Amino acid sequence: MTTDVARQAGPVALAVAQGGLEVRQFLRSREQVMFTLAFPAIMILVFGSIFKGTIGEGVKFTQYFVTGMIATGLMTAGFQALAIQIPMERDRGVLKRFLGTPMPKWVYFAGKVQMVGVIALLETVILLTVASLLFDLHLPGTPEKWLTFLWVSLLGITACTLCGVAFSSLARTGRSAPAVVTPVALVLQFISGVFFVFTSLPAWMQNVASLFPLKWMCQGLRAVFLPASFGAREPGGSFDLPMVALVLGLWCVLALALCLTTFRWTTKRDG
Description:
Blueprint: H1 3-8, H2 11-28, H3 30-50, H4 61-91, H5 94-99, H6 105-135, H7 143-167, H8 177-191, H9 203-209, H10 213-225, H11 241-262
Helix pairs in contact: 2-6, 3-4, 3-6, 4-6, 4-7, 4-8, 4-10, 7-10, 7-11, 10-11
Family: Belongs to the ABC-2 integral membrane protein family.
Keywords: Antibiotic resistance, Cell membrane, Membrane, Transmembrane, Transmembrane helix, Transport
Protein name: Transport permease protein
């Protein structure tokens, strides 16, 4: 976007244009598309083909596993993608050049938010389609469950997006960003009940996972896709949706505060 266009366009038009640019850049990167969109679907295919039994009360493992993969997809689109992408752009001087334009700083973040929203929507649709067609996933049957699915997803993706922006300041270089971010994302998946039934994990893992958003995203989505009676198998004896909302909301506030206080537009060598 040229400087003249930036001066003539309104802030909303600038934000929409920036969002379109971010989405196009994402779709042009085959590696990003494959990892972000295809990998969770591949994991459902693999795990769904291997584990065909039930985990109790007639609930198939796939029905349980898909809730974790949707939550993981949201975390990947928000936290992992931004925490890797932003340091790379900072290293290439993209952020520094952005500061030299008359565009408001928030336009940059608005573009990222739109990109994350598109990716999260595409990924969720892909996962639900694959699981429904190949593994007989039972979709939510009531408007109340779809509403729960909506607010858990929105709170979760908001928290993950803000965490991704905040975490982007930890990587010293763009090249080191994947090495810094990927292990964190993988550990959270293993301890948050994505690949295994959460209550089968050691108590200390459950306690650590409870400090982070992914565990609560998984728990909220289990309330959507699993029978109400299955809530008794949760650590607290219920799905406890008010606590899910509270923790995810607190993470949104905390991550926003970290973004405002730690985000860097330039590298240390730029001053």
